[in-house]
Amino acid sequence: MSLSIADAIRQAEVPDSDTPELDKEVLLCHVLNKDRAYLFTWPERILEQSQYDAFSILLERRNNGEPIAYLTGVREFWSLPLKVHPSTLIPRPDTERLVEVALELLPNKPTNVVDLGTGTGAIALALASERPLWSVMGIDQSEEAVELAKDNARINDLDRVAFKVGSWCEGLNPDSVDLMVSNPPYIAETDPHLSQGDVRFEPLSALVAAQNGLSDIVDIAQQSRVCLRLQGWLIVEHGFEQASDVRQIFKDCDYRDVTSYQDLSGNDRVTVG
Ligand code: GLN
Fold this sequence. Notes:
This protein is of the alpha/beta class. It has helices spanning about 5-10, 20-30, 35-40, 50-65, 70, 95-105, 120-130, 145-155, 205, 210-215, 215-225, 245-250; strands at about 75, 80-85, 110-115, 135-140, 160-165, 175-180, 230-235, 260, 270.
């Protein structure tokens, strides 16, 4: 069978996706190792059988619900290309809000920053890319995530960002951190959202927390008191209905100036203390 690029895209079907055309184009680009402009410049180019087969397999996986980012192995965050892997959450645009808030609050002067549950390293690397004077460390309990985050640091010329395996603040020195950031698991076990879409393929350990999704935020807020300096900042992402609970958790841990910030959809998504 000899099919052109245009034929292959026309024939392909991704019925359950919200973005079928984009999905097809992104997957074919991944197979051809080209950008999207190539598809429109050479629509009549005939695909090799092996390319067509590889495209068909990716389409089938997509139609089984696998997220595009796991199929291509990359996702952009804060304009940084990041490798992703099923051992980590796929970085989301909403999390860029946390990065923005941190950058609004703290200038480029020597600052010790820790990103708890760093996953791909997205937040740590985005902050380091904007603040050359900050010392940034990402911590994750998953060894695979830490290896991936180190790769992402290399790919983006941000090797000065350190990554280590650990559980939240374990092993951090008392009074040593100026800024602690985290996008922890915050979805309740019973949330129906967990059986829909991309999250079905993401690690539950990065998504779900006990106590209605709040237990990890409680642990982080409590543990942070020891390693954070007196004038330090804690910034966490959370679910949009959790903002008032999270503010109370921060206040119970003696945080001051506790404020929530909205994401792109106007929902409270990030709380600072
Ligand atoms: N915001 C993500 C979602 O709703 C969850 C991220 C997280 O648990 N940290 O899919």
